[in-house]
Every structure is written in structure tokens, then in C-alpha cells.
Amino acid sequence: MKVLHDIDETRRAIRDQQQSGRTVGLVPTMGALHEGHLSLIRTARAQSDAVAVTIFVNPLQFGPNEDLAAYPESMEDDLANCEVEGVSVVFAPSEKTMYPGDAVTKIHVRRLTEGLCGGRRPGHFDGVATGVAKLFQIIPADKAFFGEKDYQQLVVIRQMVQDLNIPIEIVACPTVREPDGLAMSSRNAFLSPHERSQAVLLSK
Ligand code: PAF
């Protein structure tokens, strides 16, 4: 498994796979991998010859009062899990690599981002769309795998790919849940015992 931090090196690694006739499946993540992510990776493996995983906590999709600084991180475990799952390439860029500071372009998907999570987190989906579009340029995979847990995100990315003619098939994967029904999420680690017991009511 190659662990890469540089954009050109990553492009080369993906190109090598594709030039040798292998299809590439991409699983974009922000790290702190759990069973939900691993199921995306397993689906990607089943549907592609090689799997690329990105690990990048995308600052663009966090609002000023959100949990960017506290976002859970477990790079060592994440890499070990990727290795076990047979991932070929991990792209784990620094913030400076992804956003060198001179960019003036952002992607805004209208209408679909106005309600639900988008209504409460202004700019969140611009950050997601811009970050994911950049990942799609760096890793022009055949398919990219997203969880249905973040359903609005899935719909926004599908629309962006259609509108911008990005030749990557978006594959939706079912939500993976804890035994009591709570959807797995890296942010579940933030829940107090009381919040954890309330959160399960969502699935009920
Ligand atoms: O769902 C996530 O983890 C993120 O929103 C994504 C798709 C990796 C973009 O940063």
C-alpha cells in the first residue's frame, strides 16, 4: 500500500493503475475510520481492481464555530485498517497541499444545499463540493463510494458530478449501524452517555 501526501505522486500512482488496465475505486474520508468507512472500502474493492482512500479533514466544510480543531484523528489505526482491507493507495495531504492559499474558486451547488444540514451550516456544502471536486481531479477514479448516512451530501455530489461532466460514477452505500440502531459516525465519540442514549431515538 502506498501512502502519499503529494498531488503529483498520487496522480502518477493512479495513472499507473489505470494504464495497466485496472479500474480504480475512490473512498474519500476525513479519517477516524470506523466500520462504516470499512464497508465503503469493501464495496469499492468488490467493484474495482484497486482502491484509493483519501484521508483529509477538509477545513473548507467547517463553519467558524464548528469542531474542526477537535475532529477525531487516528492516522496510525486508519493506515493499519486500510492495509488490512487491501487498499492500494492512501492520499493523505496536508492542508497546505490542498489549499495553498491563493485559490479564488469554489463550487456552489444551488437548491439542493438550501435546506436540512445545508440550511443550518451555511457554506458547508460549498466546502464539501469544492474539496471533493479537487479530490476527483487528483484521483480520476472510475467510481467513488459515499455513504447514504450523509444523504444530502450524496445527492449534492451526484448533482455536481452530473453538472460538471465529471466522468466518475457515484456509488451509494447503505448506512452501517451500531447494534442498537445508531448510525456509525466518527463524531459519535463526542456524545456524552446521555446524548448517546438520546441519539438512538433518531433511528427508532
Ligand atoms: O463525508 C466525509 O467524510 C466528507 O464530507 C468528505 C466526503 C470526505 C469530504 O471532505
Could you give a short description of this structure?
With 204 residues, this protein is α/β, with parallel strands linked by helices.
Widest beta sheet: strand line-up: 1-4-3-2-5-6
How many beta-strand runs?
6
Fill in the CATH topology.
Rossmann fold
Could you spell the SSE succession in H and E letters? EHEHEHEHHHEHEH
CATH-level-2 architecture = 3-Layer(aba) Sandwich
How many discrete domains?
A: 1
Oligomer: single chain
Question: Helix content range of the residues, please?
Answer: 40-55%
C-alpha end-to-end distance: 40 Å
The chain-level structural class is: alpha/beta
Shape: globular
β-strand percent reads 5-15%
- Rg result: 17 Å
CATH superfamily: HUPs
Count up the helices: 8
Characterize the largest beta sheet: strand count, sense, and whether it forms a barrel: 6 strands, parallel
Low-pLDDT runs? none
Tell me the name of the CATH class: Alpha Beta
Map the helices and strands.
Elements: E1 2-4, H1 7-19, E2 24-29, H2 35-47, E3 50-55, H3 75-84, E4 89-91, H4 95-98, H5 116-120, H6 124-138, E5 143-147, H7 151-163, E6 169-173, H8 193-203
Helix pairs in contact: 6-7
The protein binds pantoate.
Question: What does this protein look like?
Answer:
- With 204 residues, this protein is α/β, with parallel strands linked by helices.
- It has 8 helices and 6 strands; from the N terminus they run βαβαβαβαααβαβα.
- It has a 6-stranded parallel β-sheet, with helices on both faces.
- α3 links the parallel β3 (50-55) and β4.
- α6 (124-138) crosses α7 (151-163).
- The structure holds pantoate.
